[in-house]
Amino acid sequence: MSEIKPTTGSERIQVLDALRGFALFGILFANLYSFIGYNTYTPAEIIVLPILDRAVLFFIDWFVEGKFYGIFSILFGVGFALQAERFSAASVNFRAFWYRRMLVLCCIGLLHMYLIWNGDILTLYSLLGMLLPLFVFRSDRTLLRWVVVLLFIPLVIHLVTYLTPDAPFWGSLRRISTGLKAQWGFADLSLLEMRTSDSALEVCAVNVLYAIPRAMSYLLSGRYFQVLGLFLIGILLARHWLPKIKNNEVRVPSSAIWIGGIGLITSFAYAVIKGMIGTPYALTEIGLLQAVVYHVGSTSLALGIAMLFLVFWASGRAERVFQNLALLGRMALTNYIFQNVTAVLLFFGYGLALMRKVPFSYLPFFAFGILTVQWLFSRAWLKRFKQGPLEYVWRRLSYGSSRTKG
Question: Residue 16 is part of which domain span?
Answer without folding.
Answer: 9-397
